[in-house]
Amino acid sequence: MDRKHQFFAHAMKANLTGEQCRVLFYLLSHEYDGVIGIKQNEIAEELAMPESNVSRSIKALKDAGLIAKTTSKGFDGRPIFHIDKAFCLPPVASK
């Protein structure tokens, strides 16, 4: 199973709520090479959801091991999230 399929299988087993899934899909739509730079208030505005719900959803995604947040900020102060590295690495070639 490749990394992308492992990620979605892991997400499926995480018992995410509908809001958490919406936030995850939004983050994935802004992902580039496993990195996502976006502010929570932007997510809340785009998804028409209270920012507190976005914050709780992001915490749940981190607790589920689907994303991680770095302490550094992007060039314009955006928090930087990463898709769990276990799911971003290229598949290991079999011998």
Helix and strand succession? HHEHHEEH
Order of strands, widest sheet? 1-3-2
What is the straight-line distance between the termini? Answer: 16 Å
**What is the fold-level CATH name, i.e. the topology?**
Arc Repressor Mutant, subunit A
Count of spatially separate domains: 1
Q: How many runs of DSSP E, i.e. beta strands?
A: 3
Strand content: 15-25%
Q: According to CATH, what is the class?
A: Mainly Alpha
Which characteristics define this entry?
single chain, 95 residues, alpha+beta, Arc Repressor Mutant, subunit A, 5 helices, 51% helix, globular, disordered C terminus
Describe this structure in words.
Helix content is 51%, strand content 16%. Residues 91-95 have low confidence and may be disordered. Helix 3 (40-47) crosses helix 4. A hairpin with a 5-residue loop joins strand 2 (67-73) and strand 3 (79-83). It is globular, with a radius of gyration of 14 Å. It has a single domain (3-88), classed as Orthogonal Bundle (Arc Repressor Mutant, subunit A), CATH 1.10.10.10. It has a three-stranded antiparallel beta sheet with strand order 1-3-2. It is an alpha+beta fold and 95 residues long. The protein has five helices and three strands.
Topology:
Blueprint lengths: L2 H11 L4 H12 L5 E3 L2 H8 L3 H13 L3 E7 L5 E5 L1 H4 L7
Antiparallel strand pairs: 1-3, 2-3
